[in-house]
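Re: the 202-residue chain
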Amino acid sequence: MSILLFSYIFPFLLTVLLLQRAAAFSGRDLRGWGAAMVFGFAGAGIVLMPVGGLPIGRWLISFNANFSIPLSAILFSKVFESFFGMRLLDEKALRTGWMFSILAGAVLYPMAMGLGRWDPYAAGWGFSWLFILAFLVTVALLAMRNRFAGVLVAAILACDLHLLESANFWDYLIDPILVAVSCIALGKWIVRRRAQAPMHKT
């Protein structure tokens, strides 16, 4: 039951974010609990709306079987910021998440597609070096007071509670959509930094 309920989290957050973006074009005030409740109920209604005998929220599973915890956390941070003006994940945490996702994707996906003899996806089943590495990275980020550490803690706890339909730890850490979004976001940040560089020199 918990797996089914959790599968609606990402579609719900995505729907609310899209509603926020649409409302922003009309110049409406999106701040406060009132707006959060209105958009929340509207998002839930859309996600639970049956289409072809299946709720819209479940249709997304056909595109991506498991949406990772970091992807949901980043999306939640964006939605929360729009409603309450508070950044749960600051720029440093987001950049860390982008780099973590790109590096993890570079390790996992090429090998999983048969570009090598070693398949790192197997390490996601049961206790392995992947859990130790994730733990060490989390501890290091906690020591540096990087908020992305909280996201990794959430991923570890979610895996322990079996909240996703997959039992593989990799699926809790990354997914193809997260890697693609991270590449785009980090690329835009690098371009922006290079564009601002001459301004700092003057």
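The first helix runs from residue 2 to 6.
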